[in-house]
Amino acid sequence: MKHYEVEILDAKTRDKLCFLDKVEPNATIAEIKNLFTKSHPQWYPARQSLRLDPKGKSLKDEDVLQNLPVGTTATLYFRDLGAQISWVTVFLTEYAGPLLIYLLFYFRVPFIYGPKYDFTSSKHSVVHLACICHSFHYVKRLLETIFVHRFSHGTMPLRNIFKNCTYYWGFAAWMAYYINHPLYTPPTYGDEQVKLALIIFLFCQLGNFSIHIALRNLRPAGSKTRKIPYPTKNPFTWLFLLVSCPNYTYEVGSWIGFAIMTQCLPVALFSLVGFIQMTIWAKGSTAAI
Amino acid sequence: MNNLDTLVFLEFSFENYPFSFFSRWLVLAIAMVRFYMQKGTYKGLYKTIQKTLKFFQTFAVLEVVHCAVGIVHTSVLVTGVQVSSRIFMVWFITHSIKQIQNEESVILFLVVWTVTEITRYSFYTFNLLNHLPYFIKWARYNFFIILYPVGVAGELLTIHAALPYVKKTGIFSLRLPNKYNVSFDYYYFLIIVMASYIPCKYYYTLIIPRTQ
């Protein structure tokens, strides 16, 4: 069996960073990344982007050396992706924040509303219901992160955690402040409005969860395969016939339900911003399919 | 003032748009100098030129359009931020909070804006005519060093002067309780604007050399 030689050059400066000889032809990019880390320990595999062309797309970890369009001396170009953090860490942090922050406002912890309101309770039943729904939503997200989701990328750039947490924590504080405020005004149409909103919210939570389970079942444990989602016997999945990412549809639906329930403008704005962001993501997913 | 307005309107229909902008600001400068020479004071100056100022500064929105369409090769974002900050000052501070119109800081930033715009538009005008006197080019890049911080100072002092009136009248503010369960305090918003002036304007000075 003929061995390959692999030289790794910096994509920007074309400096020779590493030379590997006696590489197995069936070696994967992941294995090559591990070998590269040995000579440059500060560049752990998650922050390496190896490509055949300095300006080209990154090679996948699963790609096999002998299947690539290279000669027996392969030249790979390296780009540093920057400090990385695992998706799981980011998700857990960005979801735990809103859960706790909302509760601080709900229990009217000191220094928020003024001393005479400290640790008092709202007299409106919708405020208690809202707290249950909001908390349920984020507990669901945390549990899904731990038990349901299967991530194709292990990591994302470190700066994302600051950006994401600012977004989630900031909006959570903003909406929680008004909903739990002593001067909160309950919905105009009273119990009818709250009941309708609760039905929408629960329906969408269930829908969102169904899609997450359906997506998980498409991808066997430990694999990074991507399969095209399709509707199943579960009626909630029939939305796949209309949209490529029904989990996002149900997510926006949940927040619209919550906005109607609380009749709080910041919640509506959060739904809108989320809708815009998820549309951008969905368009990327649709293109990939 | 009416004759000057007519003159400006004619200029506006010119093909050479920087020239029309240049002449507008020159008109404004002349009006300001005339007023001071006649009255001997700057009190009441703002009231006299305010219509012209609002007219010109609002039309600066065209500049953003020019960038978007591609006639001018500056970024839409940079121009948009610049124009927005001017429109904010004119409409949301000096127009809305009348009590501060005779402050010295208002004259300060008006003079800075006038000199800046005259320099800038004469630069563009001469550029389009392919005959750029060295002085104009020098002025464009060097006046900015003094004018920019002075202008920022004038604007900041003006916003600061407006604060007590904003607090008293509660202008542009929405208080609880209301059925949308949201509130907005223009007073604190202005304080945040003032705090963000330094980093934002500093960041702008880093960008400007690159857009040339």
Distance between the termini of chain A: 38 Å
Oligomer: heterodimer
The residue ranges of chain B in which pLDDT falls below 50 over 5 or more consecutive positions are none
N-to-C order of helices and strands of chain A = EEHEEEHHEHHHH
Strand content of chain B: under 5%
Largest sheet of chain A: 4 strands, mixed
Name the shape of chain A in a single word: elongated
Radius of gyration of chain A: 24 Å
**Average predicted confidence as pLDDT of chain A:** 91
Provide the helix percentage of chain A: 40-55%
- Shape summary of chain B: globular
Q: Would you count the extended β strands of chain A for me?
A: 6
Specify the number of helices of chain B: 8
What number is the mean pLDDT of chain B? 83
Helix content of chain B: over 70%
Structural class of chain A: alpha+beta
Low-confidence stretches of chain A: none
* Rg of chain B (C-alpha, Å): 18 Å
Strand order of the largest sheet of chain A: 2-1-4-3
List the helices and strands and how they pair.
The complex is a heterodimer of chains A (about 290) and B (about 210).
Chain A: E1 4-10, E2 16-23, H1 29-39, E3 48-51, E4 73-80, E5 84-86, H2 87-106, H3 125-147, E6 155-157, H4 159-179, H5 190-218, H6 246-262, H7 265-288
Parallel strand pairs in A: 1-4
Antiparallel strand pairs in A: 1-2, 3-4, 5-6
Chain B: H1 2-12, H2 17-39, H3 45-59, H4 61-69, H5 76-95, H6 104-128, H7 134-169, H8 186-211
Membrane topology (chain A): Multi-pass membrane protein
Pathway (chain A): Lipid metabolism; sphingolipid metabolism; Lipid metabolism; fatty acid biosynthesis; Sphingolipid metabolism
Subcellular location (chain A): Endoplasmic reticulum membrane
